[in-house]
Amino acid sequence: MIANIERFFMSPSEYLAWEEQQIYKHEYLNGEAYAMSGGTLGHNQVAVNLVAMLRSYLRGRGCKVFVNDVKVQVTIKGPYFYPDLVVTCEERDFQSQKLIRHPVLVIEILSPSTESFDRGEKFRQYRQMSSLKDYILIDPQKINVECYRLNEKDKWELTSYFAEELSNSLLVEFPCINFECPISAIYEDVEFSIG
């Protein structure tokens, strides 16, 4: 999540040094650092559900899942983002103490203040990463999961999973890690507002 509350202009190296000293996280794009906003209970519950499922599923498969405190470096010059969840299967990322550079899967849980950025510029930036195969957007306010997948022709395809009510029969797939789960598992214990 990115919120344009505080803006600071700096080089990538200045950003990395400065960010280590900050209490709150900041994403970095085009010379600017953006303070991160907080999430809702629904946002947090979706993240918890996914971490629990993916951590269990990935155990022993050579991949790891990380949550929103882990920074992803898109290129050496930036941008630097904090996705809600990121999966890497790259040994070099496992050895890193600060950055993920080779994600195969990035999941962003949407909020009204960041949705257009997550769909637009952030996704455009992430597409620079040759390792990235799946980019997932999840709406915590209604049952809607959008999976962008890099196909065999190097084209991004969208598969949307949406429903009026939770279902165990609607399976959401993350092909890059051969994972699938009922959409109801992603939204377990999420309270939706009415109206």
How would you describe what is shown here?
The protein is of the alpha+beta class. The chain has one domain: tt1808, chain A. It has six helices and 14 strands. The chain has helices at 12-20, 41-58, 91-95, 115-119, 121-126, 183-186, and strands spanning 7-9, 26-29, 32-35, 64-67, 71-73, 80-81, 85-88, 99-100, 103-109, 134-139, 144-150, 156-162, 171-174, 179-182.
**CATH structural architecture:** Alpha-Beta Complex
Structural class estimated from helices and strands: alpha+beta
What is the radius of gyration computed over CA atoms, rounded to a whole number of angstroms?
16 Å
Give the CATH H-level superfamily. tt1808, chain A
The rough form would be described as globular
Q: How would you sum up the major sheet?
A: 6 strands, mixed
Please state how the strands of the largest beta sheet are arranged side by side: 4-7-9-10-11-12
What is the count of DSSP helices, taking H or I runs of 4+ residues? 6
Distance between the termini: 25 Å
Mean pLDDT: 91
The CATH topology is tt1808, chain A
> What's the order of the H and E elements?
EHEEHEEEEHEEHHEEEEEH
Number of strands: 14
Q: Which CATH top level class fits?
A: Alpha Beta
Helix fraction? 10-25%
Short précis:
The chain has 195 residues and is α+β, with helices and mostly antiparallel strands. 24% of the residues lie in helices and 31% in strands.
